[in-house]
Amino acid sequence: MNWDKFVDLLLDILHTQTGLFNLNYKLVIMWGVGLFFIYLAVAKKYEPLLLLPIGFGIFIVNFPLTPLMGFDAHGKRELFNIFYHYGIEWEVIPCLIFLGLGAMTDFGPLIANPKTLIIGAGAQLGVFVTFLGVLLCGFTLKEAASVGIIGGADGPTTIYLTAKLAPHLLGANALAAYSYMAMVPLIQPPIMRLLTSGKERKIIMRQLRPVSKLEKTFFPLIVTGLIALLIPAVTPLIGMFMLGNFMRESGVVDRLAGSAQGSLMNIVTIFLGISVGATMQAEKFLTAKPLLIFSFGLIDFAICTMGGILTVKIMNLFLKEKMNPLIGSAGVSAVPMAARVSQMVGQQEDPNNFLLMHAIGPNLAGVIGSASAAGMFIAMFG
């Protein structure tokens, strides 16, 4: 036996068929990033349903020679590339997520206090401020729009807009959006206390009026019609959102509504997390733009929180019955976490102050507001 040829063959196999001789420091850094998000999901329980599959996707896709995000020898897409192509590039997964969210949503608090729609609009301030700031840093119009929407704290909308305008930023944008959604309880309270006085935080709001089933049934139809007429570019998202809600409120398709908010939502969430994580390959992520996106995303989210609070304070100048400014922070669309934070901060000031249902209104308005902002960007730059 020719041992030299055997050794050469063995070395060739090790070089071409394993990742042992193809490792580099960038891959190791990305392992750390992936494991960090897995740690947040498992140990800290920050958005585990999303951060766990995203973190695992980041981790596994950054091993050399893994047949996951490329094409095989016959030109066929590899496993994660299939999820990404048909789920994200074809814009299916964000719309299915919105279908499930709609089936989970009770619009009663928003219908009972429609003024909170204004708060949801005001909370989009950071989207447009960040858009301008990102432009000044050398990003293109489409890239700036996709980064700006992060502040709305709406992961599916961020993914939907980025896939249309700047798909090369998808991993960084989606990860920033979901990361800051997960850290709402850490980021928002200091801003809320800074912008409100103790007296304002103690404002007790009157109990919301009961909302009839007829109102809840007609609401998704009316919103769908208005959005389709005024901002048609975002109709796929809002349309699926309202379809899920209409199935819930109609009361005649409980099995479909249950599937949308249960098994379908769980399956789609797995594919969403893996697809987003798999886009974060070292050669794409470890560049200046993705790292800037995380910085801008935090600023964006903070300004959106400020925008919602300041909108309530301005509205109170004209309202006889004052609203607690803490509910303004829920104008970002991190449902229902942002509303829970409003309740938490309010009860720290006064244990008898119950703001949760009042904060749900701006929270749901924020979902519509962020999707509307995305629709405007698509109409302008798509």
General description of the model:
This protein has 382 residues and is mostly helical. It has 2 domains: 1-64, no CATH class; 86-381, no CATH class. 71% of the residues lie in helices and 0% in strands. The protein has 21 helices and no strands. The protein has helices spanning 3-17, 25-42, 48-61, 79-89, 92-104, 108-112, 116-122, 125-136, 141-148, 155-165, 170-182, 184-195, 198-201, 213-230, 235-250, 254-261, 263-278, 282-285, 288-316, 337-349, 356-381. Helix 8 packs antiparallel against helix 9 and helix 20 (337-349) packs across helix 21. The relative contact order is 0.18. The mean pLDDT is 92.
What is the number of strand segments?
0
Q: Report the portion of residues in β strands.
A: under 5%
What's the mean pLDDT score? Answer: 92
Unreliable segments of 5+ consecutive residues:
none
Characteristic terms for this protein:
382 residues; mainly alpha; elongated
Draw up the topology in text.
Blueprint lengths: L2 H15 L7 H18 L5 H14 L17 H11 L2 H13 L3 H5 L3 H7 L2 H12 L4 H8 L6 H11 L4 H13 L1 H12 L2 H4 L11 H18 L4 H16 L3 H8 L1 H16 L3 H4 L2 H29 L20 H13 L6 H26 L1
Helix pairs in contact: 2-3, 3-17, 4-17, 5-10, 5-15, 5-16, 5-17, 7-19, 7-21, 8-9, 8-19, 9-10, 10-11, 10-21, 11-19, 12-19, 12-20, 14-15, 15-16, 16-17, 20-21
Summarize the structure.
The protein is built from 21 helices and no strands. The chain is an all-alpha fold and 382 residues long.
